[in-house]
TrEMBL record:
NCBIfam families in the cross-refs: trpA (TIGR00262)
Family to which this protein belongs: Belongs to the TrpA family.
GO cellular component annotations of the record: cytosol
Gene this protein is translated from: trpA
HAMAP family named in the record: Trp_synth_alpha
Source species: Actinocatenispora rupis
Name listed for the protein in its UniProt record: Tryptophan synthase alpha chain
Protein purpose: The alpha subunit is responsible for the aldol cleavage of indoleglycerol phosphate to indole and glyceraldehyde 3-phosphate.
Keywords from the UniProt entry: Amino-acid biosynthesis, Aromatic amino acid biosynthesis, Lyase, Tryptophan biosynthesis
Oligomeric form and interacting partners: Tetramer of two alpha and two beta chains.
Gene3D superfamilies in UniProt: Aldolase class I (3.20.20.70)
């Protein structure tokens, strides 16, 4: 491999958590929100409070899969002048904490730069890989090649509507973990986790066999009790909107305190 990333794969964090008999906590925040430096500081707060893997969102002007909380955060970042280059500075600073750091992005932004160029810059910044919610393995030849060249995780999504064949093909293409979206629709914290989530995780494991990559469940978790519930049947618990909401419409210090408290609650939840 040329230019291979020096970052640990997310699978290392999942393996460590499994060895400790607990779930893995994956936390999401958008780059550039509430500012580039503010996002870096917020991610450091999450790392200190017990998150195992960090997803850095890449703000996009047409976030069709994001709920209102993440949309607002992305809009604020873009209005403040965020540029794609800022995500690499963010990744470099966050990865320095030792927590595996992935970028979550719509594929159009990667394609605009070029998959090989984006992979090179991400690896140089110490990023672990990419989560690509709107890209399927069948259409990912450029990314499969680039991620192999630079030793990066590639995380694709499966949903309750996915066929068993699609689940098997998607999981086989993943490296790091597979992202199971437990509810249909846009992202956002919910009062209850989805009833479909345990069945989807079971289908992923059945389709992929004993060598399956870890399964992380996202969309809906907002507190430690829900995190404990999801960690009871999945390898990882992915939290986004609830964490982002801590930083909306508040003073930075207040937001960071709320973020620290929620992350600690979620971290305690996956350890129950």
């Amino acid at each position: 491999m040329s230019g291979e990333s020096s970052a640990q794969s997310a699978s290392v964090a999942f393996g460590k958590a499994r060895a400790e008999g607990r779930g893995t906590l994956v936390g999401y925040l958008p780059a550039g929100f509430p500012s580039v430096d503010g996002a870096i500081e917020a991610c450091r707060v999450m790392a200190d409070a017990g998150v195992d893997v960090i997803e850095i969102g890449l703000p996009y002007s047409d976030p069709v899969m994001d709920g209102p909380v993440i949309q607002r955060a992305s809009e604020q970042a873009l209005a403040a002048g965020f540029r794609v280059a800022d995500v690499f500075r963010t990744v470099e600073a966050v990865a320095a904490t030792g927590v595996p750091t992935l970028v979550m992005t719509y594929w159009n932004l990667v394609e605009r730069q070029g998959a090989a160029s984006f992979a090179r810059d991400l690896a140089s910044a110490g990023g672990a890989g990419l989560i690509t919610p709107d890209l399927i393995p069948d259409e990912a030849d450029d990314w499969l090649a680039a991620s192999d060249e630079y030793g990066l995780d590639r995380v694709f999504l499966v949903a309750p509507s996915s066929t068993d064949r699609r689940i098997a093909e998607t999981t086989a293409a993943c490296r790091g973990f597979v992202y199971a979206t437990s509810v249909m629709g846009v992202t956002g914290a919910r009062a209850e986790t989805s009833d479909a989530a345990p069945a989807l995780v079971a289908r992923v494991r059945a389709a992929a066999g004993p060598d399956s990559v870890p399964v992380g469940v996202g969309l809906g978790v907002s507190n430690g009790a829900q995190a404990a519930e999801v960690a009871g049947f999945a390898d990882g618990v992915i939290v986004g909107s609830a964490l982002v909401r801590c930083l909306l419409d508040v003073e930075p210090a207040t937001g960071r305190a709320a973020l620290r408290d929620l992350t600690a609650d979620l971290a305690a939840g996956v350890r129950r």
